Amino acid sequence: MKTRMKILTAFAAAGVVLGSAGIAQAQRSPEYAAARKAGTVGERPDGYLGIVGSATPELRKLVNDINIQRRAVYTQAAQAQNTTLEQAAFVGGCKAIQRTSPGEKYMTPSGQWTTRGSGAPQLDSSCPN
Predict the structure, then answer these.
(1) Domain map (residue ranges) of the chain
(2) Biased composition, Polar residues: where in the chain (predicted)?
(3) Which of 26, 72, 94, 103 is the most buried (most CB within 10 A)?
(4) Could you give the 3-state DSSP secondary structure of residue 23?
């Protein structure tokens, strides 16, 4: 029960995390939107953005920049919620995957990239409801 409460608390923090100004600004960039639409980037269960397939140096830089910003916010959320960075990032990953739209890529719990269909995405069984 205590672990579940920590997960739920971290999940609430992840809402703040993914809505943070720095991350939100980076994720509104035309380059990010184009990469998402093209399926060259996708959400990973660990809370970070991943590259699907081969990458250009520009795409690698974009993903690295977004992930640096995410890590900073996850670190703040973990400290505020008295949990680990990994747990805060994991909960952020659950939320990010839930927010994907049909046609966008995400990584399944088994580690495979997939394209989201019209239904709910496959989430790790440890993701909060």
Answers:
(1) 2-115
(2) 109-129
(3) 94
(4) helix
